[in-house]
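Entry 14: structure prediction run for N-acetyl-gamma-glutamyl-phosphate reductase. Input pasted below.
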Amino acid sequence: MIRVGIFGVTGYAGYELARWLQRHPKASLVWAVSESAAGKRLAEVVPGPLDLTLLAANQVDWQTVDVIFTGLPHGVAAKTVAEARQNGVKAIDLSADLRLDSPAAYTRWYDHTHPHPELLNAPYGLPELNRAALVDVPTIANPGCYPTSVLLGLAPLLEQGWWQTGQTIIINAASGVSGAGRAPKQHLHFVEAHENYSPYNIGHTHRHVGEIEQELNKLANAAVNTIFAPHLLPTQRGILSTIYVPIQPELDLAQIHALYRERYANEPFVNVLDQGQLASLAHVVHTNDCAVGLTLAQPGMLIVTSAIDNLLKGASGQAIQNMNIMFGLPETTGLR
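Run finished. Output tokens:
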């Protein structure tokens, strides 16, 4: 059994992680940390069937676990990962602290100096694009939710070189309210969010832009420029990204669809929909799946719809998928 510890278990992603680990046949949740609720039972803080006593960070016994998951704010997570590594424990980080390739990029997008830049060599944990780099490694950077939907939606085109180099890709994405975290904020109150649909940090300002463009550049082996327009969707969970991609004008939909089907043929969590179908939240919520739909709007312009559950394929489910690969298990273990 893989012995697991969780930091930040009372957050939405942390709790989802604990819930799914409870039914994982090869993993055991040994302890869970919540600084704000240390000493309480988890069921007191988050109503539900999970019932274990929450610890403070200084109470953990590193010798009792093989791997930790960090569902902590950026800046804090890296310090916990560094402590885990000093104690010989593997780490899968759900924050942004290990995702960017350089300290300068991290400072640009997160407005403070990286506390442990030596950790930035962690492999990027999007298995469909980087599986070989995730086996038996000490740390994994779990991708962001928006980047996961965007990268899986665009990877085949960019890998094949079928987009128009130098043209801007426009990403219109919407996330359920849980994507903003559990801490109370005015714009997340029921009266503010219910029956509303609102953009935020549009253009080139959202912190996920750095991660998205970094990984798109690798796929395309060229600089990829994006405009990113995230929106708050009045649902609990789910992300739908609608992506407008300038492509080579001679391409038809049958060619593109065949490319996507071939690229993802052996991927258990990516579903390329039939021609004419559009991805929706209903395809993916409460699963670790990504659904991808393809529409040729006009010659030279492809619209990709890509849907995931932000708490699963966008966070906890993908983290378990990464743990499975890290420890040599079939990656669907505990997720199907």
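Notes: The two ends are 18 Å apart (CA to CA). Will compare against the previous run tomorrow.
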